[in-house]
Amino acid sequence: MKTLQFANGDQMPILGLGTWKSEPGDVYQAVKEALRLGYRHIDCAPMYGNEAEIGQALAESFKDGLVSRDQLWITSKLWNSFHAPEDVQPVLEKTLADLQIDSLDLFLIHWPVVLKKGVLLPESINDFVALDDLPISETWPAMEALVDKGLCSHIGVSNFSVAKLRALLKTARLMPEMNQIELHPYLQQPSMLEFCQSNNIHLTAFAPLGSGDRPARLKVENEPILLEEPAIIKIAERHNATPAQLLISWAIHRQTAVIPKSINPERIKQNFRAAELSLSQEDMQEMAGFDRHRRYISGTFWAQEGSPYTIANLWDE
Ligand code: A2P
Fold it and tell me: Does any ligand 1 atom lie closer than 6 A to the CB of residue 93?
C-alpha cells in the first residue's frame, strides 16, 4: 500500500476506512473485516458516535494477533464544542479510552467552527461561539501540547480553507500536517492542492464517493450523483473497475489520502483493491474536466440565520 510520508518519517497508508455514518451495530464488523483484508488506516471522530465500538474491534484484533497497534494508523478529531484550550486534552483522552489505545497517529480540529461546550449540534443560534471569540490560534497550542506529551504523533485540521491554513501557519509552533476536506471529481480544489503541496501539508479526501448515505437534511434536490456520473462509469469500464474504485484511485493518483466509508464486506474489499488500479495521465486529464466545485457537505448546518458562520466565511470563497 502506498503511503504519505510525514516530516518525522512516519508513513500513513494512503487508503483508509471511513467511519462517518457507520452505525454502532455495523461498525464493529466493518472495522474487523477491513483489518482482516489489509486496511491499516482507520479514520474516526467522536462526532460519529461509534468510537467505543471501533475500540472493541481494535482491541479484539490486537488480542487475536490480526494486527498490532504499531502497524495501524488511527486518526480522530476534536469536536467543535471543545475548542477551549482546557478541554482539548480531556476529550482526546476520552477518545483514547473509547478506542482502547494509548495514543493517536493524527488528531484534527474537525471544523473551523466553535460551539458552546458540550453542544453536539446547534439547536439555536445561542449554541454558537464566534471564531473571533475563541480563535483557532488559542486552540492550536493545546493541540501542540498533545504532541509534546506523546498523546498523538501528528496534528492537523479538517474543513479548513487556504485562508484559514495561512493564518494558522503564521502562529503555529508545530505546523498542521494534514487538512482533511471533501475532495472528489466534482470538487477538485486545485488551488488547495497546490497550496498544501508547497507548505508540506497532506490532504485527506473525505466523501470520495459522494457520501450518498448522508442524512436527508444534508441533501439538496436534484443534486448530481457522483457514482452515477456517465463519464465516470465510462472510464471505470475501460479499466474493468467499478465507479467507486475509479474514484478512490483518482484520489490516490493525486497523492491525497482517501477514506471511503463502507460497512458492506464486499464493498470494503472492492474499495481496498482500488489501490491496485493504475490510471493514465490521459485518464487524470479527462477527469480534471469533471470539476463543478460541488460540495455535498456544504456546511449549511453552521450557517443558519443569526449564526456567526456563513457559507462565505466558512469556506472563504
Ligand atoms: P455502504 O456502507 O453500504 O457500502 P463516502 O465514502 O463518500 O461517504 O460514501 C459512502 C457511501 O458509499 C455509503 O453509502 C456506502 O454504502 C457507499 N459505498 C461504499 N463503497 C461503495 C462501493 N464500492 N460501491 C458503491 N457504493 C459504495
Answer: no
| pLDDT tens-digit readout, 273-313 | 999 999 999 999 999 999 999 999 999 999 999 999 999 99
Those residues with Cβ within 8 angstroms of residue 163's Cβ, 6 or more apart along the chain or in another chain = 316
Nearest CA to ligand 1 atom 15: 262
Q: Is the CB of 30 under 6 A from ligand 1?
A: no
pLDDT digits (tens, 9 = 90+) for 213-256: 999 989 999 999 999 999 999 999 999 999 999 999 999 999 99
The Cα 138–Cα 114 span in angstroms is: 12
Q: Contact, 116 vs 127, CB < 8 A?
A: yes
Spacing of C-alpha 45 from chain mean position = 9
Taking the centre of ligand 1 as the mean of its atom positions, its distance from the CA of residue 113, in whole angstroms, is 27
128-129 vs 152-158, strand pairing mode: unpaired
pTM of the shown model: 0.98
Domains located in the chain, CATH noted: 3-315 (3.20.20.100)
Helices (H) and strands (E) in the chain, counts: 11, 12
Expressed in angstroms and rounded, the spacing between residue 248 Cα and the centre of ligand 1 is 11
User: Cβ(228) to ligand 1 under 6 A?
Assistant: no
Angle between helices 51-63 and 85-99 (to 10 degrees): 50
Q: Which of 28, 39, 48, 296 is the catalytic position?
A: 48
CB 119 within 8 A of CB 81: yes
- Structure confidence by residue, pLDDT tens digits, 37-89: 999 999 999 999 999 999 999 999 999 999 999 999 999 999 999 999 999 99
Please confirm, yes or no, whether 48 is among the known catalytic residues.
yes
State how far Cα 238 lies from the chain centre. 29
Q: 254 with 189: CB under 8 angstroms?
A: no
Neighbours of 214 (CB within 10 A): 14
- Band of the pLDDT at 118, cuts 50, 70, 90? confident
HSE (side-chain half, CA atoms, 13 Å) at 49:
8
